Amino acid sequence: MTAGTKYVVGITDHMIGAPDLEAEVLGPDVEIDFFATTDEAKFDPDRLSRLDALMVWGARLGQQSIAHLTRCKGVVRYGVGYEKIDLAALGNAGIPFANNPDYGTEEVADHTLAMILSLHRRLWEHDARARGYTSGWQVHSLKPLSRSNKATVGVVGVGRIGTAVVNRLKPFGFHILGYDPGQPPGHEKAIGYERTDRLEELLARSDVVTLHCPANAGTRGILGADGLARLKPGAIIVNTARGELIEDLDALEAALQSGHLAAAAIDTLVNEPPGDHPLLAAWRNREDWLAGRLVITPHNAFYSDHAAIEMRRNAAKTVRILLDEGSLRNQVTDRS
């Protein structure tokens, strides 16, 4: 870098105000160009062509923008997922890409455990139904309801977050199954779960199934109509990973309506905010048949005040290392 000149780092959008924390981490020799929009169509080609690096929050990044990143040394996503990033186009342009995997592990694992315990104990259903009790009180127990040490939790994806979930489940006495072809033999012994080599086995044996895998060609729709049908009758499902893993709301509604699926907790949906669908209408209207059986949180399992700071600092540090050393940590290649 020539004396007196600055690097230019673009930030597409931000959910937590101005990028002041990023500016602090990146340093005085970096000019931040804040696009302040999730709409890729509004990215100015001239501004894109000035960038030495680009940080992406919630915006899509496709060929139309990547074609103008002629000076860009790398693209860094604030979050873990990268479904909105055209990795093939970046690869063709010779621009490396990195995500930000080392934040929010505790928060997502805690959120997941809260969902599992609350649905397993049927807390939300108790709360919904207790409002209408006019006689008796303790007699209104919901059945079936098993002890935690008599129940099995299946963890699909035993990586960073899945492992944190396993570690949180163990003190409650749950039997834990894990399915993750990407983990080496013996991983289950080191962490402490029973490994299954077939997803179908995990679905058939689990009282609760919790998803912690990426959305790719092999996992999209993993709990669609076929996957839901393979579940143990009366099972519970939890998804704090990717909306595309349970993208068929018709199948989810049918499984809940029939009772084959006891309950579901979802933090991430394909369309956010969610649009119109009979299942979502029943959830919004608190229809009696669904009372306490479908829990939806607004894609904030990752969030705590601490995680938000950690996420921003880590992403900015990745860019700073790229500018200083020319290397991109947490680099991701096209795995679609």
TrEMBL record:
The keyword Transport does not apply. PROSITE patterns: D_2_HYDROXYACID_DH_1, D_2_HYDROXYACID_DH_2, D_2_HYDROXYACID_DH_3. One of its GO terms (molecular function) is transcription coregulator binding. Residues 113-301 form the D-isomer specific 2-hydroxyacid dehydrogenase NAD-binding domain. SUPFAM superfamilies: Formate/glycerate dehydrogenase catalytic domain-like, NAD(P)-binding Rossmann-fold domains. It holds the Pfam family 2-Hacid_dh. Belongs to the D-isomer specific 2-hydroxyacid dehydrogenase family. This is D-2-hydroxyacid dehydrogenase protein. It comes from Rhizobium etli bv. mimosae str. IE4771.
